[in-house]
Each structure stands twice: as C-alpha cells, then as structure tokens.
Specification:
Blueprint lengths: L1 E7 L5 E7 L9 E10 L2 E9 L2 H17 L3 E6 L3 H15 L1
Antiparallel strand pairs: 1-2, 1-5, 2-3, 3-4
Helix pairs in contact: 1-2
C-alpha cells in the first residue's frame, strides 16, 4: 500500500507526504512509514506501529484527513488490498469536493 500527497507552496516549491507499508516492522505486524519533505526520496521519516489493524487504519484515516485539510492533493496511490483501495478512493473524492 502506498499513497503520496503533494501541495504547492506560495514560492512555487512542492512538498510531498507519502505513506507506505513496503517494509514490515520487525516487532509489529501492523505498521506503516510516513515520509515527508521537499523531495519524495528524502526528507523526514516516521515509522508507526500498532497492536491492531483497527488502530492502524484509524491512524491512516487521521493522517489522510489532516493532509486534505492542509490543502494536499493525492498524487499517486496503490493498494493490493481492496479495503485500502476503497480508503484511497474516499480520500481522492475528498480532494474533488
């Protein structure tokens, strides 16, 4: 699963915020990584870990809603699991409306 948001700053620069679960966490079954900054390949990074999938999903929604409120748009999203494809579709619709 991966979703990348972007926004354009007043000076014309772009900022990115990506969430992915490409690298599993060694001590937790439920985790994802968020990376943000001026470049998609670098910047700040934070790994989130959870005890349950519900906790993880709630945090994902919280992050997505916060990005949308801050004016970010969805640049790219991909998920194998239907649940996350539907979540990404919701987020994209929030961008449109």
């Amino acid at each position: 699963m991966m979703i990348t948001f972007f926004t354009i700053e007043n000076d014309g620069s772009m900022r990115y915020y990506s969430v992915h679960n490409r690298q599993p966490h060694f001590f937790s079954k439920y985790s994802f990584t968020a990376i943000w900054g001026m470049d998609q390949g670098s910047g700040r990074e934070r790994v989130y870990t959870f005890q349950t999938r519900r906790e993880m999903d709630n945090k994902l929604r919280e992050i997505f809603n916060d990005r949308i409120k801050r004016g970010y748009k969805v640049l790219y999203s991909y998920a194998k699991v239907k649940k996350y494809r539907e979540m990404f579709k919701e987020v994209s619709q929030m961008n449109a409306g």
